[in-house]
Structures are given as structure tokens and as C-alpha cells.
Design brief:
18% strand; 184 residues; 6-stranded antiparallel beta sheet; alpha+beta; 6 strands
Amino acid sequence: MVFLHIAPSNRISQHYGKQINAWIYPLFEQNWRLFAPNPESVNHRISVRTLRTTADGDAHVSGWFDLTALDTSAVEHNPFPSHTAQNTLRRAWTAYLETYGGEDEARSDRALMIRDYLRNIAAERVRAHRPGPGDFTSIQLRVVTQPIAPPRPEGGPAAAAPAPPPASANTRHLPWWKVTNHAG
């Protein structure tokens, strides 16, 4: 499938393009960023919360769980951090932005697939790292985007103490997404 995806267009890849793309994306996506990287100009801090409903019908919403901090802790002080710890959540969010933009309404099958991919990453991480009572039926993501400050010039003044998030920080709450088979 990867060969058919990267090979020049031919009768087979044209006829089975939809099936080939369904197999390739999002896990085996090919791009040229290794050779022409696009450095990040913002930090995305992604958090998740869950919704569960009791047998009585009462809805309980959890507090926010910081998925970005989970990834950061898996990478810090690890001489050989895994690629998944460094990039899975970040790349899923980037793909979501590329397919949805500023809206949270899917306009293609690829957008739906990327949304499901992001939802599944968040649900699996909640399940693995934040066990709680009962099942959760929905999750919601919150993404706080902050610009990255430029590096200080060589020999310039020392960095000041960290300041509170700037007014330029942007917070986006995604809709509640249904999940299944995620017992806490």
C-alpha cells in the first residue's frame, strides 16, 4: 500500500485511491518536512475532560487532564524518548487543524477520520493514566495556543522570570465527542 501511495500515478493507484488513502492516513502519512521543516511558532497545550452518566441519569464532568504535560513528562530526562511520546498528539492536532481549520464541522471523510484519530488518542490516554469510577461516554478537548517567544540574541539580557500566559493566548474548546468501550 505504501508503494502504491508513493509511486507515480498509475491505473491501480487511480482505481483504488480511496482504499489506499484509507490505509495510509493518518499513520503512514508521507511529507517532506524532514528536508524542509516548518518550525513550530506556537505551543499547543491540549487537555481533556470526560463526561459520564450514572444509572440515575446524573451527568458528571471530570476536571481537565493535561495531555501535553503527559507527553512532556514521557520525553524529559529520557535519553531515548519514543517517537509516539513526542509527536502523536501534536501531529494529530496539526492534522485536525489542517482538515477543520477554525470550524469544528467535518467537510470530508478525511476530516472525520482525523477527528476520530484525535478522539481515540485522548480517550486511550485518559483510560491509561486517569482511572476513575464508572464509564465515560464523552470527551471534550481544550487547546490553549500561545505564541513561542523568539530566542534572545547572543549575549543579550538574561530571560526574565516566566510571566503569566499572554493576552495573545487563545483557548479553543472542541465539541463533546462520544466514545465507546472506555471503562474507567
